[in-house]
Each structure stands twice: as C-alpha cells, then as structure tokens.
# Entry
Amino acid sequence: MANSFLDILKEKIVVFDGATGTHFQGQNLTPDDFGGEHLAGCNEYLVVSKPSAVENVHSDYLEAGCDVIETNSFGSARIVLAEYGLQDKAYELSFKAAQIAKRMANDYTRNGHQRFVAGSMGPTTKLPSLGHISFKEMAADYHEQAKGLVEGGADLLSVETCQDVLQIKAALYGIFEYFEEARRRVPIVVSVTIETMGTMLLGTEISAALTSIEPYDVDVIGMNCATGPKEMSEHVRVLSQSSPKPIFVMPNAGLPENVGGQAHYHLSPEQLVQYLSHFVKDLGVNVVGGCCGTTKEHIRQLVQAVGNLSPKPRNPEFIPSASSLYQSAPMRITPPPILVGERTNANGSKLFRDFLAKEDWEAIVAMGREQVKEQAHMLDVCAAYVGRNESADMKEIITRFNKQITIPLVIDSTEAPVIEEALQRIGGKAIVNSINLEDGEERINHVVPLCKKYGAAVIALTIDEKGMAKSAESKLAIARRIYDLTVNKFKMKPHDLIFDALTFTLGSGDEEFRKAGMETIEAIKLIKRELPGVHTILGVSNISFGLSPVSRNVINSVFLHYAVEAGLDMAIVHASKIMPLYKIDEKGRELCRQLVFDERRFEGEGQNRKVVHDPLTELMAFYADKKSETKKKTGVKGDTAEERLKNRIIDGDRVGLQNDLDEALKRHPALHIINNILLGGMKVVGELFGSGQMQLPFVLQSAEVMKAAVAYLEPFMEKKEGSQKGTMVIATVKGDVHDIGKNLVDIILTNNGYKVVNLGIKCALENMLHAAKEHKADAIGMSGLLVKSTLVMKQNLEVMNEQSLKIPVILGGAALTRRYVEQDLRSVYDGDVFYANDAFDGLHLMERILKGEKPPAGAERTEETGGEEQLTGAEAKIALAMEEQPESESTEVAVSVGHRRSNVRSDVPIPNPPFWGSKVVENVSLDELFPYVNDVALIRGQWRVIRGKMSEKEYQKILDEQIHPDYEQLKELAATEKLLQPKVVYGYFQCQSDGNDLIIHRPDASGNVTIPQSPLRNPQSQEWLRFSFPRQRDGRHLCISDFFSSVDSGRIDVVAFHLVTMGKRASEYSKKLFESDNYKDYLYFHGLSVESAEALAEIWHRKIREELGIAGKDGREIRKLFSQTYQGSRYSFGYPACPNLEDQAKLFELLRPERIDVQLTEEYQMDPEQSTSAIIVHHPEARYFNVK
# Structure
C-alpha cells in the first residue's frame, strides 16, 4: 500500500521541484503557444494551449529525482485569470493542471520511489489588508481553485508566496470550506515570502506570520521566493526554534539581477545545496526545493545531498501568542501580566463614544496609538453604542486598526455577526471577547466555530444560566464546562482559551460582594491548576467601580498584584494608571490589601456584633482629600529638551522620552542628537561608573534608555549617516559557554555609538575572522571564563599571526590577568593586544584603537574601582588558586611533570559513605538555597555594585534602598515563576590513586545504591575509569590524586562527585531578557542564577560532608563556608588543579546527569550554563591550589 505524503514527511527529507517560470522561459515559447497574443504570458493556460510545455517541466524535475512536483496553477484563481478574460475557466484550468501533474507523477513512481503532486496556489494579485478585495470574495476564489486541484488529483495543496497574512487566512477559509463540503481533506503547506527588508511585503515579521497560521489545521509552514537562502537564514532559525509544524524552505537561486531586461539568478547548484543542507542538517528543515531561477541541475544535486536523509529532530519552543499584521505578542510574559488597553471601548470610555458619535475615525486611531505608546501589549475594541450600527462601526475601526495599530486586537462584542465582520479584516491572530453560558451553549455554538475558521483565540467568562459566578468553586465549575465544549467538542487548542474569572466591585460595600476580590483570586489559582495550558485574563477596573479616581488607581494596582501572584496572565487595564506597589504609600497599599482580602475586624456576637475596622471606609477617608497624581510627575531635570535628554540617559528614565526626542528633532538632526546629546549622557555614565559613583545595574538601565532613544531616532536618519563610531566583533572563545561578560561589553559599546557583532558562545576563530572581514571590524574581542580559554586565546593569536593579520585584539575574562596578557600573549601576535578588565575598559580601549594608540607598555588600570575584589563564585576558585603562586609565572598547565608525590599525609581515616553509586535529588527548596547565595560575590562580583569613591554610608544607602529591595523582588519572581529549578545528582565511588592518576573502581553490586561494607577491605572490584591530574612543578608538588590512598597502600578510598543545576529555564530566561534589551534585569537574573548554582554546590558539598561524618570542622556561619572553613575541598574541571574539561565526560559516565536534564556539549561544557560539577575530596589537607 502506498504511503501518504504525511507518512513520507515523517520518514525522510522531502524534495520539491524547481522553478516553473524559469523553465518556461528556457523553452522559448511564442505567443501562439499561449493561445494567441492576448494570452501571452498566461502560464496557467498552457495546460490547454500547449500541455507538452507543462509536461517538459514536470519530466525534468521528476528525472532529477524530486519527491513532489507542483501543478502549473500558481495563478489559476479567478482573480488572476480575470486579467486575461479567463475567470470562468478557473476550475477547469486548476483541474487540468492537477490532472497533467498526477499523470506524470504516476509515470515516474517506480522502484519504491513514490511521487506526489502539490496543488500550487499563489497569492493572486490582490492584497485584502489594503482593501483590494473583500475577504469572502477572495475565499470563494480559493475555494474554487482548491476544488479543481483536489478533484484533478493533487495529493496536497501548497498556498505559497504569500505576501499578506489576511490573504493566507482567506485562502485557508476557502480551502477548509471546500474540505467540509467535499467531506475529504488533503495536507496543506503554507509558505510566506519574506522580502529583503526582513518582513513580508506589508511588514509582517516571520514570528507574527507563524502566530497567525498556527491555529489552523495546516501541516507544513515555511518560506519561498523573494530572496536566496542566505537572506532566509535568520528567519529559518526563527521557525526552527518556534514552529510546532514541519518546516518548508524553497528559496530562489539567489537575489535576481536585471540583465538585458530579464531577471538572472546567479546562485550555483553547489551553493544552493550548501545552504539547504545546512538548513536540513542543523536547523531541522523537513521540506526543501527551488523557486525562481532554480533548474533541473539544482534539484538533482539537492536530491543527491539530502533526499535520503532522515529529518533532524527539533524541540521547538512554541509560545502561544496573538498577533497584529506586523508583530506577535505572547499571551504570557515574565513578569506578567500582558496589558490589554481598555480605552477604545464604547462601554468604558466617554471620549471614545464621543469620537464614535462624530465618526472621527482618525481620532479613534490616535487613541489606539496612544495606548501603544503607554506600553499596552494588546488593544480591546468595542463599538457597541446605543443608537448606532455596531457592525458598520466595527468595520470602519478594524479596517484602520489592522493597518495602523502594531499590537494585537481583542474584539469585544456580544454579537456573532459583528465578531465575524471584524475577523474578516484582521491580518493577525485576534482574540474574541467573549463567550459564556448565560444562554446555555447557544453563544458558544455560534462564536467558537468563527474562532476556528478565522484562527482566533477566545475569552470565556465565568457566567452560566444562573448568572455571574460568585464563589471560586462555581467559577471553576463553569470554566470546566466551557473547556469541555471548546476543547473537546470544537477542538480548539487549550492555549487559545482565555478565562476571565470576573469580579464584582468592592466599592459598593454590599455584604454579598465583600469577598469578591479574594474569590476571583482563588478562582484564577484553581483554573490554572485544574485546566492546564489555558490562559487567564481579568477586567481589573471592575474591582473599584464607584470609588474616587485616585482610590481606583490604587486599588486596581494592588488587586492586579495579587491576581498576578495567583497566576493571572493578562489584564484589561488603562496601562498608564497601574502603579508598582513600591510607589504606593504604605498605608494606602495596606488598606487596599485588607479590602481585597476582606480583613474587617468585628467585636461582639449576634445582634451585638459590629465592625470596628472596615478597610473600605478607611480607604475612602484616607484618599478623600487626595487627587490623582498620575499627571503630577516630578519629571526629569532640565529646562530644555536637550538637557532633559542627557539627564534621562544619566538617570535611566525613559518616561516621557519620546516627547523630548520629538521636541529636540525640531531643532537638530537625529544624528546630532545621538552624537552630541545622548552620547554625552553615556559619557557621564561611564565617568560615574569608572569613579565608583554609579553601579553596573544603573549603567545598564541607562543603556536601555539609550537603546530606546536610538531606535526611535533611526527612521529620521538617512542610511548613509550611520552613527557608528567603529565596529567590534566579539565572541566567547571555542569551548567556553560563558557569555555574561561578553554581553556586557556588547551593551556598553552599542549604547555608546559603536557597532557590535556579537557571535555568541563557543565561537571558532574562523567565524570571528569571517565576521571581522564582512563587517570591516576595527577590533576583535575574545572572552572566556575558563583557564582553558586562555590557552585557546593564545592559539587563536598564533593562527592570526600565521595569516599575517594585524587587526587589534581585546581580551577579557575571569581567568585572564593583565600580566598574562601583556607578558605571554602579546609576544605571540604582531598586531596589538589589549587587556580589558571590565566592559568600560572595552569602551575606552576601542576609543584608543580608533585613535591609532598602542597598548600600554606596562600594567595600568584604565579606571579606578576602589581596589575592591569583584569575585563571582567561579572567579573565586581561580583567585584562591592563583594566590598560591607569583602572578608573573606562566599560567600554562603542566599536565605531567613526573610522579614525585607531595608530602600530603597518607594515613588519614577513610570515611564510610551511606551508599555506593549515584542518586538524583529534584525537590530542593529555594528557601533552603537562597541563604547559601554568596551575597558579596553576587552584588559586588556579578552585579558589579562596588563602593568605589563613595563613603561607607553612601554605599550602604544604595544597598538598602535600591539593591537589596531589587534582590528580594528577584528572589520572589524566581520562586513564583519557577525560573530556577534546582536539581542534583551525586554519588560515592571506590577509588585508589596511582601516581598522578585517580582510579575509580566499578561498584561490586548490581544496583546503583547499595549499603557498603568496610572501605578498608578491597572488594576486588575492576577498574572502571581513571582521571589524570597535573602536578605542581615546584613548591609542594601537589596533585589531586595525592589526597587519596594509593594502590600500594592496599586501602580502598572513597571519592564523591556531584553535579548541580538551576535548570534550562534559567538559561532561556536570561537569553530572553538580553535579546529584549532588558539589560538591568538580564544582569540581575543571570548573576543570581549563576550564584544560585554555586550556592547549591555549597549546600550539597555540606550534605556530602555530613554523610561522610566529616562536617565537624564546618564553620558555624554560612559565609565561613565560602572561604573553605571545612574539611576537604571540591574541584571543578576546567580550573587550575584539574584543567582538563574532557574529564567531564567521565564524570557524566559516573553520574548520568541527563536524568536531571543536563547535557554535555561537544566542547565538554554543561548545558544549561547554570550548572556546576565537582570532584569532592575528604582529605583534611585538601585546599584550592594552582598548577604551573
């Protein structure tokens, strides 16, 4: 029995055919071949006028070995054929095109190679988002085309070269209408076209396109046409990381060039295959082929290269989202909530109603734009106004909003016809507000099918036939009913179902509703727990209806805070009137909390019971004489826009930034504002940081404002202006996964006017050199944390010297010292080599490089930091080891210098472990972990908050008022959002030393965990594996193996290993913060995640000492443990005493840490980064030491 297309798709890489139009051009067809001059150029009519030309196309690509040929029907829709007067032949031409292709495919299906036909459905010549055609008219044409193709024999349909997302939705509407009518379906491929500008023709980002297509029952999503594979690469990566569907990529043979009035494509078959092989093998692309300019030879070589490969498994991280025509917005952010602007709603905004009555559509668009500026993530739209035609008004508003509002829309209506009119005009993925059970299932039966047809999510209200639910339990019961209907009956995806648990006002004082706030909060918790995957939303301002404006702002903010804690994802609010709790006066905040949780106090019993404390009356009294302060902002200092802009950069204050930029633009060109005003502010920031008067978190806050300002000004600059001072290519060297230092340099340089090409981690030298050449870089920056990385840097410099390169190189990282760079590394490279101690060093060094200055002759500090140590957990290990030796000695590692044993005692007692083998521990509490975080290493080291030139009192004030509160909030966020997920695997193993080697014996029992016999008795176990450690060349000649009983002693010793991790979520969240330009939050969270891993290692080392019975020498205070106040030591691979990262593979064999989702990369680094492992030594003389 023949396999289906979807079966083949699971088994192998599917190869489509190449260009049809290019092939026709090569056949030198005449007007007569097309059926006459009036039909010349109508390729689709060739199935009637000259079918042999179509057969030639198919036969060539089938002979080349492709799996799928596309029908000659790209423009066989009625809309396109009307240009030739052939509109009534749409079905016939589509049918014939499929018929010819199917016959050809069947002829070539032999020797087990099955061939398939894809019905090609192009974008037509109309863009519905621009009003060229109505949604239903376009859908009807696609319905007709699909019918002809499927009935003619097409095995699948390919909706391709899509330029308007609304066109895709119309096509799918028509196709699924046909499927329903015919009671059959075939697979569907949807392929968008991303132009050279990086978006679809109307400005849609690839992520927004994916969000819009994902709700539909399509089988493959991808890209074709417009560009070559090189230009598609970035977008393919987005799909690789995010698409839950198989991926389709069909590029042109490069970018076209106009030669003699015709388009010529110059990408050779070999070049095309190179790119597409990369997409298949590295990015998990499932379907490939060729678009414009590709030929039979392109496809033949493509089939040979990838046609027999199995698909590469992907683990995409699809984020449920809504989208506008332009961009995607997730339905949950961290920290939550998603803010849904509520002002374009006729039920809640008098101003909106006034504009509606006047039909002032431009004013309504301005209201929408204003909410975007106020940081709303989505926009609620309701046009229901008594006496007006809601459907007509909604058409007018949505037609404009679809093109002019960049955030997703929430369609708020009780009328199904109004909802459908809106959905027919929205290119992105909308949210429908709302469904409920007030009239039983009737409303759901009308609205949910519309959401399915138009790819929308839906909000469900907890209302049933009895009315609006009051208790948490009744709200949950209604939510369960709605879930069953929408998910199980109508097959909507749970993530597209958004529950509004609703709330009554607390402002009335009505006894019936006194617990309304707490019941809603509890309902949110229950819904999130009992109905996995769904989202939650709340119209927050309902809670405060009837109170004064200032009271409403405060209680809305407090109620929102606790709703978010309970799991609320989205909130319908006036975004600019929500305040963070710390900005609300303490008494008002507490009264609001008491009101929400009904903490009235009573005295007496029965008829004598009376209220002695009512938060509502006290709150009303407290705010009785206060007016809203939302417009009484103190503002940033400065009488002119220029002064305010500079101070905004220094203060990190972006509120009102756009207004000041607009004012400055009236007097200065954009480039002048950047170079003379904004960069002036960043210069002051650098000076304050260098003198110790500003801490790194606040530097990053300034950088965020700078980034936002430059982004706003970019459209006002001519491309040739380019504000970059110079260019640096920066990367973490091969074999090293640590990126925080490199990323900080990126942030500081970028926001001081430099272009930074950040190549990420584990970067090979050839990639750095290629990027430096491509971007004409002024310098290359290499970063690394590990000792091994210093050797990689040296090798890189040697290779660069062999290639006679002279580009300046800046080196930085925890394992480097200034002397090592200046005395060891400069000598191997003829170009200039600089040492950067921190991010601002990198900035100052770039300034020197661009001035043509040479590196300093001797050690010097470019900036003062008050002489304080800035040690992170990892750096501390290096520093403690380095103290053992003079810094002037070479830091190259001596892997072996003979077996002369040190004078370490060999007669120490050997402890008894509680088991042999390994154990996994997953339930480590953050409450237990956080006390072990080294606050000094975190705040001074990771966050670089140092005293500098401040007095102790000034420094302490910053810690107390800014740093410590931020720290507490971050810990709370990490706990509530489960951003840190501590896990451990550890174990005990029998061992002996042999010279510089440590031999690990296999356990003598079959299970991993057994009760040991006395370790003094040799169990005659076999050697399992061995570690080889370097020995000091002089001094005590220390080697880790010396701390264990030797083979000659006849005693069997015990060694422990552990590996701890904070989980993959920590790395993913750090990356997300950096990529979204949340620099300060990135620094904070990355630092906490790294130090938390160190804290967990500290905790588990202590547990191991306790289990071995050697914890008696532990320091009584936790901070004492940070300076090794305990017996024994733990050593991590990659550091001086055990520098061989390759030994991680042996540790992985012993512990099997894949059980806690930790993997080992090809470079022997742990993934996720927030993981650390160690060999743990019980010997009382074991301490950190360096090996020279």
